[in-house]
Design goal:
Length: 188
């Protein structure tokens, strides 16, 4: 009997460690939001759902404005604090159904299932203001820009690229703002 109990305890411990490893492999080590790989897997799954249900799916690509300057003038420890604060504020502002991940250095990608482009821009702008308020309160004083795009059958890479075009437009327009993605058919 003792042998069975011991085996069961060992099995439960192994399952716990496997869950922990799985969690660790899908999260960014600094910010604890999804990492790039895990986020792209989630995006792919959400795109399949959106295609199957006909429901909208939007993404927002956020970028910390002038972050290189933050690291250069205040140091990387300070920069890390800004990243952690930014990730926390975004997590606090989104629904359980949404997903946020660190897309690259100072970029965060937000997935918004069941959300059209106009609503995504509003959500992103609320997040932008919350980040500005929180970082000012913590004496970090940083802003973010963002680009929003809505899924219309393109690949994950193309969808994120569309959001990146919106982000680029936000940066060109003066930063600290959210812009919807520009698509070539809008120019016709």
């Amino acid at each position: 009997m003792f042998d069975i109990t011991e085996k069961k305890e060992t099995q439960l411990e192994l399952e716990r460690k496997n869950r922990l490893l799985s969690e660790m492999s899908s999260r960014d080590g600094l910010t604890h939001v999804f990492n790039h790989r895990a986020l792209m897997e989630i995006l792919q799954a959400e795109m399949h759902k959106a295609t199957a249900t006909g429901r909208p799916l939007s993404v927002v690509l956020f970028d910390l404005d002038d972050f290189k300057n933050v690291n250069d003038t205040r140091g990387h420890v300070y920069g890390d604090r800004v990243l952690v604060t930014t990730a926390r504020v975004i997590r606090e502002q989104i629904r359980d159904a949404d997903a946020i991940g660190r897309y690259g250095g100072e970029e965060f990608l937000l997935l918004l299932p069941d959300t059209g482009l106009e609503a995504a821009v509003k959500v992103a702008d609320r997040i932008r203001r919350a980040i500005a308020d929180e970082t000012e309160r913590e004496d970090l004083r940083v802003t973010v820009s963002g680009g929003a795009a809505c899924f219309d059958g393109q690949s994950p890479t193309e969808l994120v690229h569309a959001a990146d075009l919106g982000l680029y437009a936000a940066k060109r327009a003066g930063k600290n703002r959210i812009e919807p993605a520009f698509t070539p058919q809008e120019d016709d």
